[in-house]
Amino acid sequence: MSPIPRRSLLKAAAVAGAAAQFSWVPGARDAEAAPRAETADDGPVTLDWLEDGGLGAAPGSTVGVPWPKGAHQPGQTFALTDAGGKAVPVQSWPIAYWPDGSLKWTAHAVSSGSGKLTLTAGDAAAPDKKVTVDKSGGTIDVSTGVITVKIGKNGSTIIKSVTRGSTEIARNGRLVLVRQPEIEDEDQSTVRTERFDGAIGEVTVEQDGPVRAVVRIDGKHRKGGRSWLPFSIRLYFYAGADSFRMVHTITYDGTQEPGQASGDFIRGLGVRFSVPMRDESYDRHIRIGGEGTGLLREAVKGITGLRRDPGAAVQAAQYAGQKLPDPSTWDQRVTTRLQYIPEWGDYTLCQLSADGFTLRKRTKKGYGWIGAGGGRRASGFGYVGGVSGGFSFGLRDFWEKYPAQLDIRDAHTDAAQVTLWLWSPEAQPMDLRFYHDGMGQDTYAKQLEGLNITYEDYEPEFGTPYGIARTSELLFWANDSTPGAETLAQQVAAVRVLPQLAAPPRQLIKAKVFGPGLYSEPDRSTPAKAKIEDHLDFLFAYYKDQVEQRRWYGFWDYGDFMHTYDTVRHQWRYDVGGYAWDNSELSPDIWLWFAYIRSGRADIFRFAEALTRHTGEVDVYHIGQWAGLGTRHGVQHYADSAKQQRIANTTYRRYYYFLTADERVGDLMHANVDSDETFLVLDPQRKVRTDPYTPDRHALSIGFGTDWSGLVSAWLTEWERKGPKWEKAKARVLSTMEGIAAQPNGFVQGSGLYDLDTGKFAVASSPVVSVSHLSAVFGLNELCAELIDLVDMPKFHQAYFDYCRYFNATKAEQKARYGSDFGTLLLFQGHSRLDAYAAVQTGDAALAKRAWAKFYNSDGYAEASPWKTEPLSGPVALVAGSEAAWVSSNDTALYGLAAIENLALLGDRMP
Questions:
Q1: Which residues of the chain have pLDDT under 50?
Q2: Strands, DSSP E only, in 239-283?
């Protein structure tokens, strides 16, 4: 994104003549939506579960299904049947529209099913037990037909009660935050903490059945006169379920200054419930998940292993969680001494790393803890209750997002307390301070020198966590009695891997979503195709293995991976400036989602899901002066001073949203609709400009590559979703497309001056050649493929085809077309997919040939690359494992996308 020369001339043109530069108005011929398809396939769609086992013990699942243009009109209803033809209740709603108004994506919620399901146009079956929502009283009451949950409208109690039938299973569900105001690195500190409680600010019912209900609660954590750490909670309920799901998001708005010991350090962050305990202590049960489906299975008052035996049947019943016979029927040597058997009221499982958890218990507060075991990776599941009912609970990604903890307290009293700690209070406080003192980089010149040695773009006060967010997922069950082993195992499995229904790859391909023609199902029909498929499989497997080997886990880190490898240290450059965390550099998000949507592989989906949850929350600012911007790759996810659109790119969220209808990701995409305003706050080119420039609301410098691709993805998504600002978003999609097309050199012009009020680019008075190797590698090709399919604007189509044609052209060809060449470029292999796309769109056989030439014989990975790993062990490495020292995340993302798109577009024209 090079700056535009003669900026004063262009600025004058923008202010004085912007209105005259554009002819687009709704209905103008050159900017129309593509015409409606004459025929469209509205046939049945077979849905299947990502993993075996179907819905299991989860409350329900929601899936997004795409449709070809014109297949279904708004108002269409849908029916679902199982493999035997039996109707399955389903709730359906639109989540995106084609420009002609027909349905593009629909969401479908189910609360039952274990095998393949068939979705067709038709009338939905109603569930036997519907979800209902009553907002009339002082609480919002949601009933699944099995359980009723009362949700608070104000105060600090999020969930007033959870009942099953007439039995109250849990109450007083609330959010807890422990703040530590001071942190010291040595052993002389005195630890002080203070507790804040989540205070409700607003409650919104987003869906009210009949199969699925969603309630959103927003607020902040409060103590006295201070409120901070905003939260957004969504509660999901499904028809006939005895459970519900919580999606919990916090946005950090505290203060932590580098070099300062005082600040807002989070010592504990959790969700807490009280659980009524009605049964005799020997009929009260504790279940805590260990490794896999392993469980600690105990009673508050155990009657096994005693010196005197109450009877084998009694002992077996207690271990199974069943109601015991009356003690008068036991061996009286036990019955008469029950009062001397301790009652164990408190349990804690603590996972302080990805490699170890400890479990301990005690009788009650004030008395010593007893070790109760431990292991490597706990499931994050627990249960407390008795034969008359109990509460199961679980935290997803428990060990992956350590430090986490489960507490059960006072199970020997009439009310136990359960806390699921998203950040364990036994861990070190959450230290988000920037990691170095600046090393004298107090001018742009010095900062550029720092960039030249560590690849870190440093600037004072820019490495702040203020405004980053994190989302966690929790599950809760209201049981009518202590569950048996099989049911517990199913609940554990749901916590570990939340069941997800999915549409098959062929439906996505047929519907032509996410860029028509850019992906196809894996094809090994020829040796050349098979070899590329092998390479793609190798790269995914390697990154999946590296996450484990390098322990890329933790509350803020899980989901991301590293940027570049240090071949000398046999270690990724986790501590070297811009070579550390990847932060979506060159679109690995798209590579992984394309890898999934073409294959339907569950392991790729789960990897991409974790990446999306991370990059959309942690690598992007959600509040504050940089809201709507993301942070470039670095040692900390927020460390680098390059706060840019390219990282906040809505394209990276679209896949997960449309495949799952996830509301939180929908929030993130909608929040970006007005992110063009960020260019008034922060100039992404401020350190390298050579000409005078002051951000002006009517003449903002915005690049046509990384900047515009981030902006237009948010606008396009809002338009497709018919969000609150869809008309404005649609106008900006069309006006900026026309503005780029109208430039003397189209995309090759590099950037333009944008008017925030009109949403239009000024047209430069003279041609400029300004091309960056980065412009098209943050989703531009994938976005333009969608836009060209959606919008009938020939001048824009030609402008993009020209960019595709000339990036990988010879310097002589570039100069002949534009009057000068593009200078020194790189990333040719990644750009081969632009050759392939333009070749298909224009019918240019020479471009098709060049696409494969650049793919095989330019930069990036080659057929001659090793395509294997080498073993590592001590003393060379910290832990034994493997390395592929020739692999880099930039090359992986580019190779992955080029391989997938070239195979789909030109697989029949391989050399």
A1: 1-38
A2: 243-251, 262-276
